[in-house]
Amino acid sequence: EVAEGSFVLFEDVDATFLQRENSEGSKLSFSSFLNILDGPASRENLVFFFTTNHIEKLDPALLRPGRVDQVIEITNPSGKQIMNYLRNFYQAPDARVSEEIFKQLKNRTCSMSLVQEFCVTSATLEQAAQTIAEYKKPQKLQINRFMINNMHHL
């Protein structure tokens, strides 16, 4: 039961329904899901948010106007956004880093979740900035191997 005026979040909606037919063990079909959004089973005054890393995998029926009114792509942060986040995280609004580190941050491509991870594991703003600036993206094979190894321990 969801209260009127609520925000409802569906994370990783691309993985929720891999096909239109009911999967074995699934209690909700894709058709029922669409009906909850805007069909006979829908409720008024609800705002739905969907997250996905693969918008291309979403069924066009889900993305049609009226169901999805706005698509917002959240990209990786710029160097300036990273610095602003670091200043907020470390509660140091006037903090600065060396010009060399700032240049590296400006050219850095990493996700916000990675920036957050470095903040949590770094004692100071300067240390976090240095770690982010020097970060090298792992090879895909290493990531897959890490994920597979962790799966065995579940």
| Estimated helix fraction | 40-55%
How many distinct beta strands?
2
The computed structural class is: mainly alpha
What is the number of helical segments per DSSP (H or I, 4+ residues)?
8
Question: Any idea what the shape is?
Answer: elongated
In round numbers, the mean pLDDT is 81
Which strand-content bin applies to the residues? 5-15%
Tell me what the structure shows.
It is a single chain. The chain has 154 residues and is mainly alpha-helical. It contains eight helices and two strands. α4 (79-89) packs across α5 (99-106), α5 crosses α7 (125-134) and α6 (112-121) packs across α7. The protein is elongated. Mean pLDDT is 81; it is low at 141-154.
